[in-house]
Amino acid sequence: MTAAPPTAAAPDHREIREAVRALCQRFPGEYWRKLDRERTYPAEFVRALTEAGYLGCLIPEEFGGSGLGIGAAAAILEEVHASGGNGAACHAQMYTMGTILRHGSAAQKARFLPEIAAGRLRLQAFGVTEPTAGTDTTAIRTAAVKQGDRYVVNGQKVWTSRAEHSDLMLLLARTAPRDPARKTDGLSVFLVDMRAALGKGLTIRPIRTMLNHATTEVFFDNLEVPADCLIGREGAGFRYILDGMNAERILIAAECVGDARWFVAKARDYAKERVVFGRPIGQNQGIQFPIARAYAQSQAAALMVGRAAALYEAGAPCGPEANMAKMLASEASWFAADTCLQTHGGFGFAEDYDVERKFRETRLYQVAPVSTNLILAYIAEHVLGLPRSY
């Protein structure tokens, strides 16, 4: 195990942060509470982010995007969450297109990336997880069998968020039987036009969960997909998917840092104002200390996010840093959430304070998009050199 080289301080993207905060002021707590209550998609918010160019920030300028680095994307999502909103409705639009950008053909890039950057096409759905496979991605059963100039897809995906609000889906399917000796081979990635597929072999069913996440399960029944929807080389899809996971984890970590910032500020302000037994509750160390600890943890997590983003932008290996950023940030946000709820007491459970909504939302990130235990297993094996545990 060797220490990574030091990097320069990450830019703070101050102008971007200020602009995102100004945009988010148009979508206050009442907006998010109504959506959460009705389990509806934040279409107006997503449209505003799209029109401002934020969702296309990682797409190169030659394809109509802003050509910014992942540090800027992280700043955007952090500010969305720190403002009390939730970027989960659209964050996949930022990083999912990376599979096309890195592994797609010239024709695929020219056809899809400008449309995604302009917001005329939404690439939000990511079909990977299956009911019988879970986090063991190599065990997926959804199969794509080539027949002439097309593939026929059969199978099922679950926890496919935003499928009802996406035009395109990145789909991971098996194109060759599973070889126990080479489990990651035989998987391929397809870009599926869901507009053409709905009712013709594609079925989407919503899953009601504890948070408003537009979550669905997706069924494929002899769905015919044109052969030119294959991204890259057949059988190399597992590597393509892994290639994009570091970006996903860095951006999710940034969202968690934003959540933590929101919870700390909310708890601090309430602790100053709430008077019990003739004194503000924030004067008590039993209230002060957890808030201070939550702040310290969120600051440390932010440093790891910045470190991972800097390595990613430099084109350097960043698997350990991206994973640690996601784990530390999700744990910081959850501790801050619990602290904030405890500080508010009974009022923390009241809808009007937004604490209970954000509390539910941030709990997700210790489970998805990768669980804390899998991150620990990764660090143990790939960083510390311990025997593989699974």
What does this structure look like?
This protein is an alpha+beta fold and 390 residues long. It has three domains: 14-118, Acyl-CoA dehydrogenase/oxidase, N-terminal domain (Butyryl-Coa Dehydrogenase, subunit A, domain 1, Orthogonal Bundle); 123-236, Butyryl-CoA Dehydrogenase, subunit A, domain 2 (Beta Barrel), CATH 2.40.110; 239-383, Butyryl-CoA Dehydrogenase, subunit A, domain 3 (Up-down Bundle). The chain has helices at residues 14-24, 29-38, 43-51, 70-82, 92-95, 98-103, 106-118, 194-197, 237-273, 285-313, 319-344, 355-363, 372-383; strands at 123-127, 143-147, 150-158, 168-174, 187-193, 202-206, 216-226, 230-231, 275-276, 279-280. The protein has a four-stranded mixed β-sheet. The protein is globular. The two termini are 21 Å apart. Mean pLDDT is 95; it is low at 1-8.
Write the layout of secondary structure elements.
Elements: H1 14-24, H2 29-38, H3 43-51, H4 70-82, H5 92-95, H6 98-103, H7 106-118, E1 123-127, E2 143-147, E3 150-158, E4 168-174, E5 187-193, H8 194-197, E6 202-206, E7 216-226, E8 230-231, H9 237-273, E9 275-276, E10 279-280, H10 285-313, H11 319-344, H12 355-363, H13 372-383
Parallel strand pairs: 1-4
Antiparallel strand pairs: 2-3, 3-7, 4-5, 5-8, 6-7, 9-10
